[in-house]
Amino acid sequence: MNIGDILTRSWQIVWKYKILWVFGILASCVEGGGGGGGGGNGSGYRFDGEEFNLPVEAWTTDFVRFFENIENNLNQSVGVIAVILLVFCVLWLLALALGTIGRIGLVKGALQAEQGVESLSFGDLWQNGTQHFWKVAGLWLILWLAGFVLAAIVVLVLAFGAVLSMGLILLCLIPLICLLIPLGWVTNLLFEQATIAMLKEELGILESLQRAWDIFRANIGNYILMALILFIIELVLGIIISLPILLVVAPALFGLALGFDEGMRTTLLISGLCFVVYIPVLIVLGGILRTYVWTAWTLTFTRLSANLLTPPAQPEMLDAY
């Protein structure tokens, strides 16, 4: 596999078919109560001198009153909490739907661009996204559910193990936890490749996973090298893209460290406005980067799958008589 050719061709596609940037922005939606603190001393007592030694009745009453206040506030705010949770769920589902359509649009667009189409239209890519939405969403739902179950099992094992072994099991499980990182990387890569296989070869969920695994197993060296290169590209470009945020926030943080005055208030206001102005730029640049990565993986699958064709059916033996 010519990795240099794939990286170059991916950039050519990203630059020529700029409509893919929109789907890169959408795909970024899934590639990822107001809290404020009131920091007073709730009991009204100062913990200094002899006042720390309070009567048992005093701190017991205060302790009970503290939880009664929490219960009362919770009962009064249950409607607000329900609305916040509902809005959060709706936004999460919306981001999930848009992110799934974005992934489909990127893969389909990259495949059509590789075939040499003159132009790509938003309507056609969006229609492809809606047509294949449930299959792709079902594929990734398997990963999310498996990840949730695995995380719950690990947390329970760590919790019970820490209690029974007084924390010693945590030291023993550190190597196992470290192994989960490459395992998670391989799993995510397989599901990305399965998504491409599903859209390119019109396969079902299980068939696309099997196809992705077969190609990955036969080309593990190429995949590791490509993943390393794309990781470095994402890391370097991600730092460059995020650098203006640091330049905007750093003066405000430095001023806060020196003290808050009228000039500091102006600095914070300017930093905030610059941050808000840069957010659309950050979203667009992040979408372009996401477009490039998915295009590169799509071309990688296309090139490697061409070298691993499904074995043809054996011809029937002709009757000799």
What structural category arises from helix and sheet content?
Answer: mainly alpha
Largest sheet: none
Helix content: over 70%
Radius of gyration over all CA atoms, rounded: 27 Å
Shape: globular
Indicate how many domains the architecture comprises: 1
Order of helices and strands: HHHHHHHHHH
Q: Bin the strand percentage.
A: under 5%
Mean pLDDT, all residues: 77
Task: Note the main attributes of this structure.
321 residues, mainly alpha, disordered C terminus, 10 helices
Concise overview:
The chain is mainly α and 321 residues long. It has helices at residues 3-16, 20-27, 56-76, 78-114, 122-131, 133-165, 168-201, 205-218, 220-258, 262-306. Helix 2 (20-27) packs across helix 10 (262-306).
Please, could you describe this protein's structure?
The chain has 321 residues and is mainly α. It has one domain. It contains ten helices and no strands. It is globular and about 70 Å long. The C terminus is likely disordered.
Secondary structure: elements and pairs:
Blueprint: H1 3-16, H2 20-27, H3 56-76, H4 78-114, H5 122-131, H6 133-165, H7 168-201, H8 205-218, H9 220-258, H10 262-306
